[in-house]
Each structure stands twice: as structure tokens, then as C-alpha cells.
Amino acid sequence: MTSTTTSTGETTAIRVAARAVHATKIYGSESTEVRALDDVSVELPGGRFTAVMGPSGSGKSTLMHCVAGLDTLTSGQVFLGTLELGALSDKELTLVRREQVGFVFQAFNLLPTLTALENITLPLDLAGAKPDPDWLDTVVDTVGLRDRLSHRPSELSGGQQQRVAVARALASRPQIVFADEPTGNLDSRAGAEILAFMAAAVRDMGQTVAMVTHDPVAASYADAVVFLADGRVAGHLADPTPQTVLDSLKSLKG
Amino acid sequence: MLNVTLKGLAAHKRRLFGTCLAVFLGIAFLSGTLVLGDTLRANFDTLFADANAGTDAIVRSASTIEADGGRGPDLDGRTLVPSALADRVRSVAGVAAAEPSIEGYGQLIGNDGKAIGGNGPPRLAGNWITDPELNPYKLVEGRAPQTTGEVVVNRGAAEAGKLRVGDTTIVQTPEPVPVTVVGIASFGTGDGFGEVTFTAFNLQGAEAHVTKKPGVASSIVVRAEPGVNEEVLAERVRPLAGDGNEVLTGTQFTAESTDQIGRDFLDIFTTFLTVFAGVALLVASFSIYNTFSILVAQRSRESALLRALGAARAQIVTSVVVEALLIGLVASVAGLLGGVAIAGLLKGLFDSFGFSLPAGGLAFQASTAVICMVVGMVVTLAAGVFPAVKASRVAPVAALREHAVEAVRASRLRAVAGAVLTALGVAVVLSAVLGGGDSVLAVAGLGAVLTMVGVVVFGPVVARPAAGVVGWPLLRLRGVTGALARQNAMRNPRRTSGTAAALMVGVGVVTLFTVFAASIRSSIDDTVSRSFGGDLVVNTGSFGGGGLSPALAPELAALPEVRTAVGLGQGVVQVDGDGKRITVADVANLGKVLDLEVQEGALERLGPTEMAVSSDEAEAQGWSIGSTAGIRFVDGATASFTVAAIYDVGDVAGDYVVSRAAWAPHAGQDVDSQVLIGLEQGVGLTAGKAAVTAVTAAAGGASVLDRKEYVASVAQGVDMMLGIVYVLLFLAIVIALMGIANTLSLAIHERTRELGLLRAVGQTRRQLRAMVRWESVIIALFGTVGGLGLGVFLGWALVQAASAEGFATFAAPTGQLAVVLVAGAVAGVLAGLGPARRAARLDVLQAIGTS
Ligand SMILES: Nc1ncnc2c1ncn2[C@@H]1O[C@H](COP(=O)(O)OP(=O)(O)O)[C@@H](O)[C@H]1O
Ligand SMILES: [Mg+2]
């Protein structure tokens, strides 16, 4: 898309893949009102791996959904690249999702009737676009699925299923990949694999990933961490290690 | 447990609604059929009771000849009695009044010059009975006829033809008789005897125009003095009645008329409708079964949990039984009531096809309620319990698994059983049809049922590959949307085939009738166009035995444009004691316009005691040229006739042909039903038709048809039946479509998460809707193609079985079958519309979150 290559100018070294500006999301009506997001402003820089952390119910998923065009804000703005999502229709949001965004959910990422390869190319097929074969090869090799491509999800382990999901998210070379607790259902080894693939996609392939996680170890794979609490940004951490993440979490509570 | 059931019911409102609707429609149709049957019976009863209310006895000839329909409507004839008998009867003690009654054919022409009355009910002319109590008609306007040119007409006919007192018009008896309407009569308090049109002359008028012989009448009607019992009266009249005549009491006569209607018409009519109610119910029960299977499968996770929590297997089944009973009860009661509306619609349907039925209040009998309730509850219960028992066998662990719990592959047992049943059914049908024998139709019917059952059992085995093949073009044409739709249609073969089976049965029956009708039609087309060598036909319509004056043919023949004009009349005689229909014709000229393919003898020189017979009949009777047979006419006269010609083609002329000279002396009303015309060389069709129409228009406007129109009109009866059959089967198809819609709704409910995922990764609403619709189309096409195959095969078998009796040769109407196929696809789109719309409305985030 047009915005992918847009540079914001000499002053900014790194382009912004997505950002939220004074984002507020309110669920329910007055008496039962829940402020899932309360005036959140964050930037997700391009070519970086950003982790989003915070206690359960702090608005992490809501933030992702709004930035990814799956949900709309009550007030404020979100941008994908330079494109403001607030003004878009359902149809336009759908097209944005399939062309500029990749998704990895915690579970149920794949259509049971399609093979692994068909699942990977699904967004491209829906767009009626031909996958770039070199890129597809790279992605498939990165996640190590070459010999599983014709299998159906029911024939794959949980870890393999998530790898297919990561491959699908990357296949269309999106502006940004959102992953909401992608390792939440996996054992630690399979989880580590997934995290390594995502880190590699950012490092070696120039992709942008934003990942929600509870796990300080998972967060340590990222280049930076954004902390949320009660729907507000509660802090930032660059070059996280498990230890610094834990420390930050502790100080947030304290 | 009941609590859980009720909560479950409330939670599945939409699916319940679909199930209820299927039961409702099936029962409503059944109920409507029964109500209509009872209503007609009751109405006919009152009509006949009214007609004979003042009649205590009737004297008539005991001699009657009846011939069954064969290739046309039934005909009968009864010998006339002397009118003078009335005078003698009047002298009997206890007789208050006795009058001759004449009843015959009389087509009344309306103010617009068109014939009044439809195809079904008789159009009668007779005498105005002067005794007001003997006469069921009452003057409501004007006066009784006094001269032979005056008539009273019934109010219904007067209104239909916009005739008023003082108007002049024509009655064809069948000669056109110019008359003045002097009175309008009601029948009891109604407009007429059902839809029958009645034109009453005075006695002299009726003798002159209807019997065409002075001094004879159809019967003598007798009224008793007050206090004289009708049986006593009949007893007293009997000695005077004379040889060959019989005396019936009013009650006996009414019962006889009612019986006859019951036997000839109502029984066939209700059987016919019940068959379609049966098809509708069968289709409905497929839909119910399928809906319950899915509901139970979806709930098996829940029920496995219940079982894991300790609920007994019986409790699971009980909860489904209760659910089925509730649905059966509600839907059957609703269907019962809806049947009243359906009865009205059915009546309207038959009216619109020209079969007018007597109107009147609807008769709703307790037996209707009982039958409908029992059938409705039993069908729903049976369709619900079977899947429930299956579900109760699901191991708790299996049910708690993440993926769909229903077995995806069809079992080997099913494959074997389905294949064996189908093969057996086909074998039975083939052996019956090819082997011949007495009960071909019965055995072939049994085979047909076996085949049908086999195909339904076998369905799930072929559903997966079949849906794959049917959906294959979508892969190319519709990309990933088509591929997803195809996969979805293939993923649960049992469900796909169960859903398609309902449609398959409906389409199968439609196809069967289409093929059979087309075969009959094409053989009629064949023989008629082969044998009819003329250019034009004057016709009175194929039903109701209308009449043309025998004078019309000579009049037409005199036209300069016309080379030959031959009238064909119809009548009944007894041949060696059996009633037979005969064709009466100007045999000298018949061969010029109609090629009967005479094998032996000379048709054109048939003498007054000679007849021509079809080769089929000659073979059946063991006759050859020179054989003789005893013929008895309606007037009681007998003669020995010699077979003087044998011909092959009986489609137009029937089995017997005699000359006009042989018939006319014995005919009460000598009537032609058609005139075949050959034009002079060089006269164009348009010019010829114009000339002929000018003559017939003056005589009351029978239709003038060219060859093509004539062939179409001979087959018109077939088309009319087919039209009615299609309308009736439409209901079954609608039920089947609702079944598809229901299955899709349930499937969408099951696949909520998948749909959410698809939308999240970029499927537009439009693509999602298309995906659901295409799945629906694949299922519908699977059912349609199966139904077409089944229907063509069974249609072929039926035609083979019937062709043993000389009815038809097989013809597959490819055009019509293609229409059925396209209609199946369109129906699939329609069935998918609702579910697709609902699926597209899903909230993406909620759908993803659904577990
Ligand atoms: N659809 C919804 N309706 C009402 N409240 C919601 C909805 N989705 C989320 N919430 C509320 O918004 C808050 C943030 O939710 P979420 O973003 O899912 O948190 P997290 O992902 O950080 O656990 C929570 O209090 C949650 O209950
Ligand atoms: Mg969350």
C-alpha cells in the first residue's frame, strides 16, 4: 500500500507502523461503563518487535483490536502508517486488515477445512492476489513448515498450528503483525520457537510485530515493551530482559 | 431435566421455528386435503338432498350403459321412458304430482357470445317442472317458460353470462336454438347445482330441442300426498312402471347419486391429494430428522458434560423426546388450523385450472383432527428420537473434544446397505418392467420405493465426492470463496446428504411426473400428427363432452375453401354386454382427414350394421374381419354388428368406429365433439381458418385449431394435470428448501469462530455471503441431480410399465429437465439468502471470542 514506504521525513529515523492518539474505548452504558482504554497514546515503530504487557483487563487486547481495525474507538484516533482508521467503513477496514495487517490469536487461528498452505495464503486468496513465491518460500522456511504444507490443522500439533498462523500473518508482507498472547496455549519449548520466529521476521525480514503477552520471558524477545494498567499507558522499557521486565512489573504494582 | 430441555428450547428459537415450519406445512397440507375432501362430500350430499328434496319417487328405465374413461371422460347413457307414464302414475292413490323430467346436453351462450361454464361441471338443458315442490329450482325473477323458444336459466349461469330477463341468446343442444330468457331461478337458496349450468325449456321445448322426440323423457318424478310414506308410494307405483323400468324412492335416488360422485370423483380426488400430502410429509420428516441430528450433535458436548456430571443415557433421550413432542404438538395444532386455509387454496387451485368444485362452508371433522395430530406427533417423534439415541451413545470424552463430534466418514455398513438396497430396488424395477406380467405397476412401485430408500441410505457415502464434483467449477470460477463453500459442503457428508435428500425426493417426484407426462405427450403428438391428415379442427374442448351440431360438418364442407369436413361424435353402446365408447363418423370421408392406418377391410364403406375396430381391441376380443358382436344401444335397441375393418391408430378415434347411419336412429342427442377439416388445394391456412371461424362463430364459437394447436389441445389434459401436480409439489420443494436453510443456519452457528476468523483476516461481508450461498447451491444441486437421476429412471420404468398397455413411449424432456436443474440451483441461492445474511451480520470480535 502507499503508506508502507512513506518516510515521515529526515527528523524521524524510523517510520511509525501504527499509532494510537488519545485513544479511548468505553464499553457499556453510563451505569455499567468500563473504560477499557483511557486516553492512550502509543507508537509502534516499523521494523521493530514491540511487546504490550499489563495485568489482565488492562486493555491490551482492546488496544490491539482497535489499532488493527477489528474494533472502533469511542474517541481518539488510530493510524496504520499514515492511514487514519476512524473514517473507514466496514468494507474498507476489512480490506485494510487483509492487505496491511497480520493476525496471530491465542487459539483457533486456522480453518479446519484448509491445508496449512491454504491457510497461509488465505488473506492473499481472499484478495485475489498472487503470493510472491520468493517471499512465501522465505516465510515457510523461517517457520520450518516445508514438510507440513499439505496437512490439515487437525493433523498438526498446537505449536505447528501457531507456526502456520505466524506464516499466514507474514505471507502478505503486512504493515504490521498483531499477536495476542500467541504462546498462551503452548508449552515453553513450542512457545520459544514461535517467539524466535517472530523475532527473526523482524530482525532478518524487516517486519513489524506487536505482541501482547503476560510472560516476562516472552517479552524479552521484543525490542521494547509498553506497559498498560487500567486502560492507561503505565510505562515503557527498551531492550527488555526477563529481569528488567519483572522489575518494571513490580514497580508498576507498587 | 425438563428444565434443561425447556431452557434449550428457548435458546434455539430460530432452529425450532424452522423445524416447526416443516411439520406445520406437511400437516397443513394433509389437513387441507382431508378438510377439502370432507367439504366436497358434505356439499355434494346437500346438493343432491336439495335437488331431490321434493321428490318421493322416481320412475326410470332400468337399462343403462356405462363405459369407463379409457382415453377420455366416462360416458353413460340411459334409455328414455314414455312421458305418458306420468299420467298413469298420477292416477295412483297417494300421488300428489307426477311429471316427466328431461335432462340432456345444453350449452348456454352468454351475452358476450361465449360459452358459459368451465371444463368440469355438466352443462344441462331440460324441462321446467311445473310442480313447485318437485322442481328444485325456484324462480327468483320473471316467469316459467310458456313457448318452446322461452327458457329459465339458473342464477349462477345468468350471472356468469350477464344474461337478464328479456335477453335473447342461444342454447346449443347441440344445434343452436335461439331463445329468450324469461326467468332466472335459484337452486334451493344457491345460484345453482354446484357449478352446473341449467337451461329449462317448457316440456314441448325440451322435447323439440333436447330429446328431439316427442313423448319421451329421462324419468318421471313423483311427489306423494302428505302422510304417504315414500316407500309405500314407490310400492304402489311399481306395478304401473312398465317393463324394463324401475322405481326408486327419493332417498334411494339421492344415495345413488351421492355414491356415484363418491366413487367416480371424490375418492380419486382425495387419494390423489393424499399422495401429495404424503410426499410433503416425507420431505418434512427428512428436514425434521436432519435438524434434530444437528441440534443433538451440537448439544452432545453439553450432553456429554451432563453425562460426565452423572446424567443417565435415558435422561438425554428423554429430553429430546420431550422436545420432539412439544414441537410435534405445537406444529400439528398449527398445521391442523392452517389446513383450513390450505383447503381454500386447493379449491382455488382446481378452480383456476377449470375444475370448478361446489363451494360452501368447510367441513371440519373430528377424524381430521385425530389423523393430523397422530401423524404429526409420530413423524416428529420418530425423526427426533433416532438421532437422540445415537447421541446418547457418544462417549463423553469424544464429545468434549475441540473439533466437530459427528462422525465425518460414512460407515462401511451404510455403504454396503445403501448399495445393496439401491441395486435390489433397481433390479426389482427392471425385472418388473422388462419381464412384464400382471402386476407390473405394483412390483415396479415396490422397486421404486426400495430404490428411493437405498439412495437415501447411500447418500452420505457419495455426498463427499459428489459435492466435490458439483462444486468443482466453483474452484475455477469463484476462487477461494468457491473453494471454501465447496469444502464446507463436503466436510460433513451425512449432513449434506440428509439435507439434500429432502430436495431429492421432491425433485425426484417432479421429474417422474415430468418424464411420464412428456412421454404421453410425445406419443400423442406422434400418433396424432401422423394420423391427422387435415388442416383444421373444430373442437369443443377435451373435457366435459361438449357438443357440436351434426349439421355443422356439412355446412362447413359446403364452404368453397373447404375440401372435406368430417364430424366425429361419441357415444356409448354395449358390445356383448360390456359398455364401450364408440366414435360416430361420416366414414366415407373420414380417411381423407384421418389416417387410422387401416390394416384390413374398408373403413369408407362401413354399412349400417358394420363397425371398424382398433387392432388392440380386435386382438383383445379375438376378432377378425367378419366376426360379429351383439350391440345394444342406449334406446334399448339391439343389433348384430359385423367387424368390417381393423385399424392401428386409436388415439383420435378410440377402439370402435361406426357410421352415422348406424348411430343416428338410436341417439337421443346426436352430437359431434369435433369436426376435422381438409382445405382445398391452394387455400392458405389463414384464409381457411377465417372462413371456418366465420361459420362456427355464428354457431356459438367453438374453437378452430390448426394442426399444431390441435396436437397441443389433445395433450392439453396431460398439461393441465401436470400443472396441478407441479403446484402441489411446489410445497414439498419449499419444505425441502427450508430444510437447507435450517441446516445452513445450524452450521453457521457451529462455525461462528471460523467465520470470525475469516472476517478478521480479510473476508468481506460480500465474500462471506457468497460463500454461504454457494454452499447452499452445492447442496441443492446435489439433491437436484440425485432427484433428476432417480426421477428419470423411475419415470422410464413407469413409462415402460404403461407402454405394455399401449399408453406411451419413453421421451426424456431435456429442456424441462434442464429447467428443473437450473431451478434447483436458483432454489439453493434462495435457501442460502437468509443464513448468508445472518452470517454476515456476525460481530467479528464476538465471533472470535465464541468458544
Ligand atoms: N465486549 C466487551 N464488552 C464489555 N466489556 C469489555 C468487552 N471487551 C473487553 N471489555 C472490558 O474491557 C476491559 C479491557 O479488556 P481487554 O482489553 O480484553 O483486557 P486484556 O486483554 O488486557 O486482558 C476489561 O475490563 C474487560 O472486561
Ligand atoms: Mg486479552
Automatic annotation (TrEMBL), chain B:
InterPro entries assigned: ABC3_permease_C, Macrolide_Exporter_MacB
GO cellular component terms given for this protein: plasma membrane
Listed transmembrane segments: 272-296, 316-342, 362-386, 415-434, 440-463, 500-520, 720-744, 776-798, 810-833
Name of the protein in question: ABC transporter, fused permease protein
Compartment(s): Cell membrane
Pfam families membership: FtsX
ABC3 transporter permease C-terminal domain boundaries: 275-394, 727-843
Organism of provenance: uncultured Acidimicrobiales bacterium
One function term, GO molecular function aspect: transmembrane transporter activity
Keywords: Cell membrane, Membrane, Transmembrane, Transmembrane helix
